[in-house]
Amino acid sequence: MIVWLDSPEAQGRNFIFLDRDGVFNENRPDYVKNFQEMKFHPEALDALRVLKEKNISVIVVSNQSGVNRGLISWDDFWGMHDGMVREVEKAGGRILAALYCPHRPDENCECRKPSPAMILAACRIYGIIPAATWFVGDYDSDVEAAKQAGCLAARIRRPGESDEDCARSGVPVFSNLLDAVLSICG
Ligand SMILES: [Zn+2]
Predict the structure, then answer these.
(1) Is omega for the bond preceding 116 within 30 degrees of 0, making it cis?
(2) Cα of 63 to ligand 1 centre, how many Å?
(3) Residue-wise DSSP of 96-116
(4) Per residue in 38-64, pLDDT tens?
């Protein structure tokens, strides 16, 4: 588990957990491997500004198995992280912390979502109450991790995903992060 903190203390008591690829930026079947491949959703950047205005601290929780698959160098990994932090700040938002799992599924680590370990680690660091905190991702593994941590879960609809698949996840599904934030953090 890789833990990056912008600050060890949050400004307020409200938090939101966000997956990265597919939520902040377009996902890719061959993994988002470097900053040039990070195509940010404009609505997501708007949503991050709205979150800062509402004094809700943002914590990113992301599986990045491309690292241990040998597809993403550490330089590119941190280049994506730094680039994300910079883009969000440019849009008027802020990332408080980011937790990443670099492992492949076959490594059977403790941190990879659907494990709730990264969420629970962030909860310990900041004294977050899971039951009062949303997690927004784009896969059922995000929903599963959120539920196991005791968080509220919502999902972003993936490109081309059917209404049936959305309904099957059993949680609110939104077309983008801005819709999600305006609805759940209203
Ligand atoms: Zn891991």
Answers:
(1) no
(2) 7
(3) EEEEEE---GGG--SSSTTSS
(4) 999 999 999 999 999 999 999 999 999
Question: 105: exposed, middle or buried (C-beta count within 10 Å: 0-12, 13-18, 19+)?
Answer: exposed
* Residues designated catalytic: 19, 21
| Domains present along the chain, CATH in parentheses | 2-151 (3.40.50.1000)
Residue 186 has pLDDT above 80, yes or no: no
Going from the Cα of 180 to the center of ligand 1, the distance in angstroms, rounded, reads: 27
User: Ligand 1 centroid vs 103 CA: distance in angstroms?
Assistant: 4
* pLDDT tens by residue, 122-154: 999 999 999 999 999 999 999 999 999 999 999
